[in-house]
Amino acid sequence: MQIDQGHNPRERRAPRPLDRARLDELALAYVARFATSAAKLEAYLKRKLRERGWDGDGEPAVAALVQRYADLGYVDDEAYARTRSGGLLRRGYGPRRVEQALAASGIAEEIRETVRAGAAAERAAALAMARKRRFGPFGPGVADRAQREKQFAAMLRAGHALDSVRELVDAASIEAAEEWAASAEEDYRA
């Protein structure tokens, strides 16, 4: 039995350095696969350039490539922000946590302001988290002090306002919690 000494199948070849065409292919594949912001696409391309190197003429025009994709509509920060904030709110995250996630994605302050949730959406998110995590009246019974403090802490970490947390965790019943959440819609309409 003869063993091949020249090639180890577990060894990886170093990836080829990027040129303009390969950088464009990477960007297109990324925006085709992921909903992304312009800042996230730029960070991804810069990371790939650090990992693989540059083999093109002059400096890589990452910012111009990202701008071209934004002009073509492949990258839309406002649509990304609206989708991301809606998803986080539906999962029960509060407005502060949504704001942090959008800022981390490189969304501009003006766009974050336009997609900021209203009182009704904030209360619905708090209610969704309480229901999902079985906090307050959604739990199996009356929470003792330590359990109540843990519920408070979890909701505050999720980005909810202290007043909202207090209303939900201390709600007398599920109906009272749901009425509290629905009352924001009535206040909004008035």
Give the SSE layout.
Elements: H1 20-33, H2 38-52, H3 62-72, H4 77-90, H5 95-104, H6 109-114, H7 119-133, H8 145-157, H9 162-169, H10 174-189
Helix pairs in contact: 1-2, 2-3, 4-5, 7-9, 7-10, 8-9
Describe the fold and architecture.
There is one protein chain. The protein is mainly alpha-helical and 190 residues long. It has two domains: 20-75, no CATH class; 79-189, no CATH class. Helix content is 64%, strand content 0%. It is built from ten helices and no strands. Helix 1 (20-33) crosses helix 2 (38-52), helix 4 runs antiparallel to helix 5 and helix 8 (145-157) runs antiparallel to helix 9 (162-169). It is elongated, with a radius of gyration of 24 Å.
Write a concise keyword list for the protein shown above:
mainly alpha, 10 helices, 190 residues
Number of domains: 2
Computed over alpha carbons, the radius of gyration is: 24 Å
> What percentage of amino acids are in beta strands?
under 5%
Mean pLDDT: 90
Summarize this, please?
This protein is mostly helical and 190 residues long.
